[in-house]
Please model this.
Amino acid sequence: MSLTKLKPSGSTLQKALAFGSLIALVLIFSFLSENFRTLSNMINILQATSVIGVLAVSATIVIITGGIDLSVGTAMTFTAVTAGMLLTWLGLPIPLGVIGAILMGALTGLASGFFITKMRIPPFIATLGMMLVLKGLSLIFTGTKPIYFNDSPGFTEIASGSLVGLLVPAFPLPNGVLILFAVAAIVGWILNRTALGRYTYAVGSNEEATRLSGVNIDAWKMGIYALAGAVTGVAGILIASRLNSAQPALGQGYELEAIAAVVIGGTSLTGGRGTILGTIIGALIMSVLTNGLRILSVAPEWQIVATGFIIIGAVYADMLRKKT
Model:
């Protein structure tokens, strides 16, 4: 197998279908409610997509390898708590706090990768354990109380400020959306243009063949999980900035939304296929659906039901593609 020629495959049609579904949802909700099609609501949708979109990018990296990461939600919380401890308790400058949180995210991902590669624990169990460990540590370090960033002026501007709004006041696009697009572009470049990306797809396509070709699978897998963890750290910064606080009890459940966005975007749960662009489209579909149903005053429990059916449909579509 030539690893240098291995590229993502089979995702063009799925991306087209996902994008078509996104446009259809936007048109349907715009027709049903004039409040949906306002500029402010469209910006709200993008803002809501920023955190879950970054988490979904992290989940995509792992799922392409044929693995799974159930800890992304609580890891996001733990990195937010880390930022709170560095900025509020230690009084470090904002750039150092941000870097520290991202590095902590990379460390948690590296730990998951170690459990999976060196201890041979299945990814589902290893990351489930990490999910509980990180949730517990967040509560222990904070004493179950939120950490507020009132003493770190400018921190909320990371996600809620608007550099675009300064240039174009009529279009106050939040910085969090720009960060989402930047993260997506960087990770997309890594997956498509670097050795780490090639090995990510190679491991997901046929791990044993990749191993037999002389690749150090364990080392590359640990690097992949560390990269995914660093991206999760960015999500932690974004949610802490939006809330102006690190909420230690927050995070569990976000992993399901992230994985749902990945699946809807066409990434195969069995590995070897998927794109960051598809994942971003999937995250937007979920945000549009949630926002549109909320504007139409659909009960929250029915919103959950609708999301569940969409996930089931996306997985079934993936199964049908494999049979053709």
Summary: The chain is about 75% helix and 0% strand. The domain at 3-323 is CATH 1.10.3470 (ABC transporter involved in vitamin B12 uptake, BtuC). The CA atoms of residues 314 and 320 lie 10 Å apart. Strands lie at 147-148, 245-246.
